[in-house]
């Protein structure tokens, strides 16, 4: 729903890419004109909500996702499973009757974690749950056995740099927010290597834990030695912090068999509903198809990918034809830093003036509350009006700033952006994708 209404917004946007919005191509629309036009879509909004929440499309995106995840499993960049997922979606989008279904080739990283384990040897024997971080190098075949230094921040690490040399750095950084705390995962190995550490173990970037480490991508720097790095559970990080505070000597044996291969061929997956009046103008909805290898990628980002697909399905089912082309892109290699999206941007940026808005769903699948939006103040006022059409399902909030690895390239160049906030799989079809796109140009 939110995506659909955002597409309507792009029809009404007062200024973007040099296009003036006029009524009957003769004089500019006033904000009152725009409000009246938005109100005129009430019946269409109701039809979308009814179809997605109560009609034959109820739970459809959930069921599609369940079959996909059960059939394919994890979809790590460069893996055979990701290849299978792309082929699966290519066929599924064609079978759904969407237009211009095609694959756009890209090159993606290919990293495999291999065998990995960690064992505390002092002050007692304890098996430490770990997950190697993406692009990590391996330990030597015999592993690394070293004393541990526990720090709570980069500042503490730098202050204790002399102590860290030759040791395994354990970060027990407090969780503030994902956006702020994730820098320990992405930069932890580099900062530890700068002070001469032999490996780094990072407390998982999570607000709570059930002894479950979280993986993710991390970045080396060309001028800094590459050391093995992995995440550990919140519980183990806290335990070693307590031991260290009491003055106990901590020794850990770490073994990781990670390997990095040459980049592999892959694809972004694309489908469309071609616009009836302005087919060259694009409203882009998206999610990423790849995932990490230690789960099925149902939430990150199967849910976002499938509700984006559902947006097009609902429009097709209702027999609606938007004025502008609605383009679905299922990105590849997002987890490695938006690799597929970056290459898509490089390929299409010469036509950037034709992109009216870019949307992404990659914020989890929870209770919906609204949308995050990046655009000018006038556009935000319009979006707020549009969101009133979602009052029947109580999803009307508009938050500052859209966020999304795969759409950042466009937003930095001034294209308005939106991301869905907290959308559960069971209602995503109505809340996130469809209603808005349809409103755009069906009359």
Give the assembly state of these chains. single chain
**Terminal Cα span:** 18 Å
Per DSSP E runs of 2 or more residues, the count of β-strands stands at: 20
Strand order of the largest sheet: 5-14-16-15-17-20-18-19
* Main pleated-sheet profile: 8 strands, mixed
**Beta-strand share of residues:** 25-35%
Low-confidence stretches: 7-26, 423-443
Q: Tally the helices: what do you get?
A: 15
Explain what the structure shows.
This protein has 443 residues and is α/β, with parallel strands linked by helices. Helices cover 36% and strands 26% of the residues. It is built from 15 helices and 20 strands. It has an eight-stranded mixed sheet. The protein has an eight-stranded mixed sheet with strand order 7-6-13-9-10-11-12-8, with helices on both faces. The chain has a two-stranded antiparallel ribbon with strand order 1-2. Helix 1 (2-12) runs parallel beside helix 15. The chain is elongated, with a radius of gyration of 24 Å.
């Amino acid at each position: 729903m939110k995506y659909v209404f955002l597409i309507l917004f792009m029809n009404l946007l007062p200024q973007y890419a040099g296009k003036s919005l006029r009524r009957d191509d003769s004089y500019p629309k006033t904000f009152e004109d725009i409000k009246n036009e938005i109100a005129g879509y009430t019946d269409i909004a109701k039809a979308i909500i009814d179809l997605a929440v109560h009609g034959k499309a109820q739970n459809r995106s959930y069921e599609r996702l369940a079959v996909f995840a059960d059939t394919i499993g994890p979809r790590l960049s460069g893996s055979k499973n990701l290849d299978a997922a792309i082929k699966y979606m290519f066929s599924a989008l064609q079978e759904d009757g969407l237009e211009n279904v095609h694959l756009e080739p890209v090159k993606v990283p290919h990293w495999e974690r291999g065998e990995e384990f960690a064992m505390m040897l002092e002050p007692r024997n304890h098996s430490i749950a770990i997950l190697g971080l993406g692009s990590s190098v391996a330990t030597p075949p015999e592993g690394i056995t070293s004393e541990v230094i526990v720090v709570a921040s980069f500042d503490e690490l730098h202050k204790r740099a002399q102590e860290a040399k030759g040791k395994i750095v354990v970060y027990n950084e407090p969780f503030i927010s994902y956006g702020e705390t994730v820098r320990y995962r992405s930069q932890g190995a580099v900062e530890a290597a700068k002070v001469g550490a032999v490996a780094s173990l990072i407390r998982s970037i999570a607000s709570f834990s059930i002894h479950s480490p979280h993986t993710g991508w991390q970045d080396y720097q060309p001028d800094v030695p590459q050391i093995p790095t992995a995440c550990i559970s919140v519980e183990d990080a806290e335990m070693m912090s307590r031991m260290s505070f009491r003055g106990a000597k901590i020794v850990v044996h770490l073994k990781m068999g990670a390997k990095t291969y040459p980049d592999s061929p892959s694809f972004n997956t694309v489908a469309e509903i071609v616009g009836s009046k302005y087919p060259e103008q694009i409203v882009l909805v998206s999610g990423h198809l790849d995932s990490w290898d230690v789960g099925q990628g149902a939430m990150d980002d199967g849910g976002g990918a499938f509700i984006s697909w559902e947006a097009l399905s609902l429009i097709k089912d209702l027999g609606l034809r938007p004025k502008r082309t609605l383009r679905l892109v299922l990105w590849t290699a997002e987890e490695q830093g938006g690799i597929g999206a970056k290459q898509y941007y490089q390929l299409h940026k010469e036509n950037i003036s034709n992109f009216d808005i870019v949307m992404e769903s990659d914020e989890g699948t929870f209770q919906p509350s609204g949308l995050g939006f990046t655009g000018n103040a006038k556009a935000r006022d319009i979006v707020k009006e549009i969101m009133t059409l979602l009052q029947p399902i109580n999803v009307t909030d508009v938050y500052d700033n859209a966020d999304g690895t795969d759409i950042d390239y466009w937003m930095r160049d001034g294209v308005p952006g939106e991301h869905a906030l907290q959308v559960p799989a069971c209602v995503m079809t109505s809340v996130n994708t469809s209603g808005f796109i349809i409103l755009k140009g069906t009359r």
